[in-house]
Structure formats: structure tokens, C-alpha cells
Design goal:
Largest sheet: 6 strands, mixed
Structural class: alpha/beta
Helix content: 25-40%
């Protein structure tokens, strides 16, 4: 089977034939589409969104976590700007942040292939910024512009021969009597289109952008949670795989829920984080602290603190810092902090409903502090235990005006439930058997993340397993 040409085009036929159909046009789908096309297979990429909104959550991302000791980008002019980070350290971080619940085979495959995958992306023309955005980044990363990355990888896919179909929502898988995938049915502006194929790859993200599914899996108030990424990640591709017999795995009630600016838009706000909260205090509307702000580096707490904040009164809280630490704060949201020399006044103007109680909490915390040297780039051991909750690191008194208050809430990035796969990105059925010709990658897959998330790992996961899915689907078609 072959595509009619290697360009992006509108759907005009009601039936198409390809070797491989990829559902999704974010990092996982693009990595799969490029790799399968490089192997000489005819590939269709089905993108639910219109062209101008293509790219799923990848469009709104900014960094990869990379085992820098296992990746050499020097021939392309890039050098990592942090100490070496090894494959084993990457694996240990995944297991630690997921409380040991991550699928070991998936985690091992991810970390062992991450270095080679980022080298491959660099060869495809992806451009990186190697300088950490702020002191909260304690392990190797590369940074990029999400829209530019999507544009470049779409070009790489079409240059390799793939066709991209926009406004094409995959809704059903076709299977033969012997369980093999034989096609994908999609809804388009021109009606239903049947894409006959020998292999399909599910890479359309999770269910996080569906208010109904957020309510179902997280609780009755979660329809109101802000969505950081694409409005199109509503889970139909996962449903399609489950309807075809795929096994559901992972933490369906868990998600990457980040600490973000309370004024962020309801959907597609992108980063909108306020980093540096770990050096100050987080207070709720009742004037209480409710987390150990210095529990760990920002990259290991921001994705779980968003949920804790969202579950506070009025679904928001306030970051409070002073002149000693404001230079360590990086605010990428739309609003500005409230600034002033009077602590109570700053909290009141920021919107705190109990500014007197909050000021008392700060005074009691300050009295308990007895810090040594402040070291923002490491866990500095400046702890205070005689407050509730305690603070494990960076416990400096907040007493040097001017004071800065940021209103924050929780925003969902991606959900942790999805379909079951093995290390070859093959989808498993409810009896743990491979479904022939069906693959999945990225946030459509469950089993890797639980409870928390090591920052920057999501996109690495999508790239690694998207690439593997493309390779394995191409090999399957050739057999």
C-alpha cells in the first residue's frame, strides 16, 4: 500500500490505504510517523485539531529531561549546562517520584533510549536551548519552543513521505477475525473516512482536557480545573483502543497537576508556572500553610502541588516571598505579583480572605527559622521542624520587605491512566496478549507515572516510545 504523495492535504476520499496509520500529531505521533516513514512505509497522521492548532500538548511544552552522560550533542554545537545526569539516576528519579509504582520495563526502556532519541531529534533539525530557565532545574534538560518543534517535525514527517490529515478524529479500530488491526475509522469535515492499514499507532494524548472525564476520575469540582495544554486531548483514542480489547492500566485518578498562575486561561495556557515557590511560603485563603514547600527540588514537587492547591478553599493559594529570594522566582503566567512593605496589606490585596491569620502564620514560621547558608541549587538542609507542616529545605524567614504575593491554582497537564503496552510499544489486551498491529505511545499509555512526576520526563517518554512504535510498526508491516 502506498500514499498518493508525500504532502499534507485535505481529505477528499471516503477510503484511504496506508501501511501505518498514526493517531495524533504531538511528539509521540510525530516521532512514530517520522520513524515509520524513514523505514519506507506509507504513513497517515490523523490530527483531530485544525492545522493551526496542531501538535497536541507538545505545542505547549518547553523541555526534555535527558541523561546527559548518555547523550552527545557536541557535533551539533550543544553542551549541557548542568552536571552529568546518568541513565541510572534518571531511572532512580522515576521510581522515587512514583513511589516505586512505575512499570519497571517501561522505565528502563525509557531511560536507556532517551540519549539516542534526543540525538536523533537533533539530527532531524530540532533546535535546543541548553541554559536552565531558573535554579529549580537540578538535572540535565534541553529547552525548546513547542510550536517550532511541532512545525519542524511535521516537515520532517512529510519530507519522509507521510501524509497529514487535519480535522480528522479517529473513533474506531477495525480488526480481522484473527485479531489483527486492519483499519481506523475517522470523523472528518467531509464525513466518515475509513483508513485501511496494516498497523495503527495510538498517540493522541490522554483524557485530561475532557471536563466529563476529569469529573469522573478526579472528583466533582475538577470540571473547573484549568487545562494547560491542547483542548483536543479528550481521550477518544484511548476509548477506541479499549473498545478494541486493550487493557486499561495506570493511575486513572492521578495526573500531572502543576502549580500555575491563578489568572491563567481556562485552556491552552501553556507553561504559566510560578517557579521559586520552594524558597518562600504557600498560604491558603484561611491563612494556613498546607505543604512542605521545601520537600524537594521544584522539578519533583510542582506537578503534585497543583492538586493540593486546587483542593484548598476557593481552589487557589498564595506564594509569598521577600526581597531575599525574589530573584529566584520565575513567573511565566499572565499576572504580576502584589508588592509592598506591609505583609498583611500585601496578602489582602492579593486576595487572601484571612490576611490576619496569614500574617500570624508567617510570624510563627519566621520565629522558628534558624537557617544557615542559603543554597538554592541544591537541597540545602535549611529545615524548620517546629511548624506544621515542617519545611525541609530553604527555610528562610520571610521578613525582609518588600514582600511579593502571587495568586496560584492547579492546572492539569496530562492524566496518568491509559492503555497497556510492553517495551516494544505493542498494545496488550485484557489477557496481556499483544494485539497484532496495534501500538501506542505517549500519554495514551498508562503504567509509567503514579502519584507524582519527575519534571521534563513526559516529552522524553513520548519521543522514546513514539520512535519505538514507528520502528516496530514498520517491521511488523514488512513481515
Amino acid at each position: 500500500m502506498s500514499a498518493k504523495d508525500g504532502s499534507e492535504r485535505n481529505i477528499s476520499e471516503r477510503r484511504e490505504e496506508y501501511d501505518v496509520v498514526v493517531v495524533g500529531c504531538g511528539m509521540a505521533g510525530l516521532a512514530a510517523g517520522v520513524r515509520a516513514s524513514e523505514a519506507g512505509r506509507s504513513v497517515a497522521l490523523l490530527e483531530k485539531s485544525p492545522e493551526e492548532r496542531r501538535g497536541g500538548h507538545t505545542r505547549f511544552t518547553e523541555s526534555f529531561r535527558v541523561p546527559s552522560a548518555d547523550a552527545d550533542l557536541s557535533e551539533h554545537g550543544y553542551e549541557f549546562d548542568v552536571p552529568d545526569y546518568t541513565v541510572s539516576e534518571f531511572y532512580d528519579d522515576i521510581m522515587a517520584q512514583t513511589n516505586g509504582r512505575a512499570d519497571e520495563e517501561l522505565a528502563e526502556t525509557l531511560v536507556e533510549n532517551a540519549g539516542e532519541t534526543i540525538e536523533w531529534l537533533t539530527e532531524l533539525g530540532v533546535e535546543w536551548d541548553m541554559t536552565p530557565l531558573n535554579s529549580g532545574y537540578t538535572v540535565a534538560r534541553t529547552w525548546f519552543d513547542g510550536e517550532e518543534m511541532v512545525d519542524g517535525l511535521v516537515d520532517a514527517a512529510t519530507d519522509a513521505g507521510a501524509d497529514v490529515y487535519y480535522d480528522a478524529e479517529a473513533r474506531a479500530l477495525r480488526r480481522s477475525a484473527d485479531r489483527r488491526v486492519t483499519g481506523v475509522d475517522a470523523v472528518t469535515d467531509e464525513g466518515f473516512v475509513r483508513f485501511d492499514c496494516d498497523a495503527a499507532i495510538i498517540a493522541a494524548g490522554g483524557y485530561e482536557s475532557s471536563p466529563e472525564k476529569r469529573t469522573r476520575y478526579y472528583g466533582p469540582d475538577y470540571d473547573a480545573m484549568k487545562v494547560r495544554g491542547s483542548r483536543y486531548n479528550t481521550g477518544e483514542a484511548i476509548d477506541m483502543a479499549l473498545d478494541a480489547g486493550a487493557k486499561a492500566v495506570g493511575q486513572w485518578g492521578g495526573a500531572h497537576m502543576a502549580l500555575i498562575d491563578a489568572a491563567a486561561p481556562d485552556v491552552e495556557g501553556g507553561t504559566n508556572r510560578i517557579d521559586g515557590y520552594q524558597y518562600g511560603l504557600l498560604l491558603n485563603h484561611e491563612g494556613e500553610r498546607f505543604v512542605d514547600e521545601g520537600e524537594d527540588a521544584r522539578a519533583h514537587t510542582y506537578a503534585k502541588f497543583g492538586r493540593r492547591i486546587f483542593e484548598q478553599p476557593n481552589r487557589e493559594a498564595f506564594i509569598l516571598v521577600d526581597s531575599k529570594t525574589i530573584d529566584e522566582v520565575d513567573a511565566t503566567g499572565p499576572s504580576d505579583p502584589v508588592v509592598g512593605d506591609d505583609l498583611r496589606d500585601v496578602l489582602e490585596r492579593a486576595g487572601c480572605e484571612s490576611p490576619d491569620a496569614a500574617a500570624t502564620t508567617v510570624e510563627e514560621y519566621n520565629a522558628a527559622c534558624d537557617p544557615g547558608a542559603f543554597k538554592p541549587r541544591v537541597l540545602d538542609g535549611n529545615a524548620v521542624a517546629d511548624v506544621t507542616p515542617p519545611k525541609s529545605n530553604w527555610a528562610l524567614p520571610v521578613d525582609d520587605p518588600p514582600f511579593y504575593a502571587f495568586a496560584v491554582t492547579g492546572g492539569i497537564t496530562f492524566a496518568f491512566g491509559g492503555v497497556a503496552t510492553n517495551a516494544n510499544a505493542e498494545v496488550l489486551d485484557t489477557r496481556d496478549r499483544v494485539i497484532p498491529g496495534l501500538y501506542a505511545a505517549g500519554n495514551s499509555v498508562g503504567g509509567l507515572f503514579y502519584d507524582n512526576y519527575p519534571g521534563g520526563t513526559g516529552l522524553t517518554n513520548a519521543a522514546v516510545f513514539g520512535r519505538i512504535a514507528g520502528e516496530k510498526a514498520a517491521e511488523y508491516v514488512a513481515d
